[in-house]
Every structure is written in structure tokens, then in C-alpha cells.
UniProtKB/TrEMBL annotation:
<protein>
    <recommendedName>
        <fullName>Ribonuclease HII</fullName>
        <ecNumber>3.1.26.4</ecNumber>
    </recommendedName>
</protein>
<dbReference type="GO" id="GO:0003723">
    <property type="term" value="F:RNA binding"/>
</dbReference>
<dbReference type="InterPro" id="IPR001352">
    <property type="entry name" value="RNase_HII/HIII"/>
</dbReference>
<feature type="binding site">
    <location>
        <position position="16"/>
    </location>
    <ligand>
        <name>a divalent metal cation</name>
    </ligand>
</feature>
<keyword id="KW-0963">Cytoplasm</keyword>
<keyword id="KW-0464">Manganese</keyword>
<dbReference type="InterPro" id="IPR024567">
    <property type="entry name" value="RNase_HII/HIII_dom"/>
</dbReference>
<feature type="domain" description="RNase H type-2">
    <location>
        <begin position="10"/>
        <end position="200"/>
    </location>
</feature>
<dbReference type="GO" id="GO:0005737">
    <property type="term" value="C:cytoplasm"/>
</dbReference>
<keyword id="KW-0255">Endonuclease</keyword>
<dbReference type="GO" id="GO:0032299">
    <property type="term" value="C:ribonuclease H2 complex"/>
</dbReference>
<dbReference type="Pfam" id="PF01351">
    <property type="entry name" value="RNase_HII"/>
</dbReference>
<dbReference type="GO" id="GO:0004523">
    <property type="term" value="F:RNA-DNA hybrid ribonuclease activity"/>
</dbReference>
<keyword id="KW-0378">Hydrolase</keyword>
<comment type="similarity">
    <text>Belongs to the RNase HII family.</text>
</comment>
<feature type="binding site">
    <location>
        <position position="108"/>
    </location>
    <ligand>
        <name>a divalent metal cation</name>
    </ligand>
</feature>
<comment type="function">
    <text>Endonuclease that specifically degrades the RNA of RNA-DNA hybrids.</text>
</comment>
């Protein structure tokens, strides 16, 4: 069973990001402050949930959280500062947007650039341990998926409505055949899926 938050002495926001491993689109991050009596229901690590469950939970989180915010860092910024720094920046932006300033941050993962004047703890697989981080993972994931779904209509050959910008065979093949869109991360390597198949047969 997930705990509500990492510590109970200070008002805490859970933070997580979505889209680090994608070839296209922004990286999104969310920060969420949950009430101490929050009823979790199905809430857990977003990767363990179906799309329908995530969307249902998003509505509950956005309605019942003390405060929540979602922010992004686009592909151009990612190319300038690298994806790790972009992930940190997206979380900083989400914290900045909160309507209530937290006194403590719990961060999913093992690295973070300290936010000014707010202590934090990094928690490996925190989205499977604490509800506020799990809630942040849901919001980051669903808001990013929605963004990529909306973009997909403009660039249908990449099938972003299905892969959300992740490096699937279809996505990589389309990028090689049609070239990169204005939303692709140009510092990310797009390998040829046929090369992957060749390497598999050689092993």
C-alpha cells in the first residue's frame, strides 16, 4: 500500500516527469500536494495503469488535490540543455506554478537539481511508494499524452496518437522516410529499425 507522502512534518509536493525517453515532443512534469485524508482508489505508478484508469484518476486528482500544476520543457530547450536538465527544469516550473508553496519536495528518481529554499528527497521508484508522486506521474503522463494526441493530426505518419513520441519501429521508420518534424529532438539518435533487426539476427 502506498503512503500518502514521504514525511509529515512539512507540507509536501510530490514531483514526477513524463517523456524523457521520447524522440519528439516536450518533457512534461507535475507537482501535486494531496490532502492527508486522500482516498487513493486505484492510484499507483502510472505505468501500471491503463489509459482509461489514468484519465479517470486525473479527474479525481485535479479535483481533490490541495494544489497541482503541470509544466513542460519543449524539444528546442531539450536540445540546448539536455534531457536530464530539461526534466529538472520542468519539475521546477511545475513547483513554481503551484497555487500553494510547498515546504518539502519528494522527487521520483535518483537525481534532482535543488529547488531554491525547498528541501527535497529523491526516491527511486517513488511513484510506486508514495501517493503524491504517483499522482504527479498520472498528471504528467496524461497531460503529455493529450499534447501528443493533438499534434498527431498535423503529423499523421509518425503515429504519435499511438506511440506518444517514443521510439517505436513505426515512429523511427517514419522519421527516416519523411525526415524530422519541428517537434523532434535533434540531439536524440534515431536508429534504423532494419539495422536493429539485422543486429538481432547476428547475435
Amino acid at each position: 500500500m502506498l503512503l500518502n507522502c514521504y514525511q509529515n512534518e512539512f507540507l509536501e509536493a510530490g514531483c514526477d516527469e513524463a517523456g524523457r525517453g521520447c524522440l519528439a515532443g516536450p518533457v512534461f512534469a507535475a507537482a501535486v500536494i494531496l490532502p492527508p485524508d486522500f482516498i487513493p482508489g486505484e492510484l499507483t505508478d502510472s505505468k501500471k495503469l491503463t489509459h482509461k484508469q489514468r484519465c479517470s484518476l486525473r479527474l479525481i486528482i485535479e479535483k481533490e488535490a490541495i494544489a497541482w500544476a503541470v509544466a513542460e520543457v519543449d524539444n528546442l530547450e531539450i536540445d540546448k540543455i539536455n534531457i536530464l536538465n530539461a526534466s529538472f527544469l520542468a519539475m521546477h516550473r511545475a513547483v513554481e506554478k503551484l497555487s500553494i508553496q510547498p515546504q518539502y519536495l519528494s522527487i521520483d528518481g535518483n537525481r534532482f537539481k535543488a529547488y531554491p529554499d525547498i528541501p527535497h528527497t529523491c526516491i527511486i521508484k517513488g511513484d510506486g511508494k508514495y501517493l503524491n508522486i504517483a499522482a504527479a506521474s498520472i498528471l504528467a503522463k496524461t497531460h503529455r499524452d493529450e499534447f501528443m494526441d493533438n499534434l498527431s493530426g498535423q503529423y499523421p505518419h509518425y503515429q504519435w496518437h499511438q506511440n506518444k513520441g517514443y521510439p517505436t519501429i513505426v515512429h523511427r521508420t517514419a522519421a527516416i522516410e519523411h525526415g524530422l518534424s519541428p517537434y523532434h529532438r535533434k540531439t536524440f539518435t534515431i536508429t534504423n529499425p532494419q539495422l536493429d533487426l539485422f543486429l538481432e539476427t547476428e547475435r
